[in-house]
Specification:
8 strands; Alpha-D-Glucose-1,6-Bisphosphate, Chain A, domain 4; alpha+beta; single chain; eight-stranded antiparallel β-sheet; globular
Length: 184
Amino acid sequence: MRALVVVGMLLGAGLARAATPAPPPGIELRDLPDTDGNWQEGRAIIAAPRAAVHRWLTEYARWAERFTDIRWAEVLPDDERGRHVIRFSSRIADHVLTVHEAVTDALLVFEGWAPYLHTQGRIHLLDRGDGTTLVLMQSTAEAHGIARLFATKGLKRKRAYQVTTSHLQSLQALARRLAAGESP
C-alpha cells in the first residue's frame, strides 16, 4: 500500500513541469554544470564561523530541533567504513531515510537510501575569514523500482531544491539565533 501512495505522490507531482523555484533572499540555487541537470546545488553565506555550522550539521541527534524538514532523527552505530549513520524522517521527501556520512572539517559527504530512492551528495563548508561560512550543498537522487516510472528529472530537481532551501534557511536561522546571543 505504501508503494501505491508513493507512486501516486510522484505521479501527481510529476504532471506539472518542475521549474527551478525562485530562491529566498541569500540563497542561490542551480544545476551543477556538466551534470545534465542530475546534480543540484544550493549556496548561501551563513553568518557564523565554520566550526558552528559544522557542529549544527553534525550533531545529528539535534537535527529535528534545528532543521524544519526533519521530523525526528536517530543516530545509529557507524558503518564498516567509519561513516556516521543517521536514520531520519523528512517532511519534504515524506520518507524515512538512512544516511551514511563521512565528515571532515570542511566537507561532509553523504549517501542515503529510502524506499525507491538512492541519494548522495556533499556539503562544502568554506571559511570566508570574516566569521562567516560559505555553504555549498550539492546532491543528486535516483528513483528505483516502480517510482522510477514517475520520478521525472524535473520532479527530482524540485525536491532537491526544496530540501536544500529548507536546510540553508535553517542554517540562516541558527546563525541569527547565535548573533542574538541565544542557544542555537
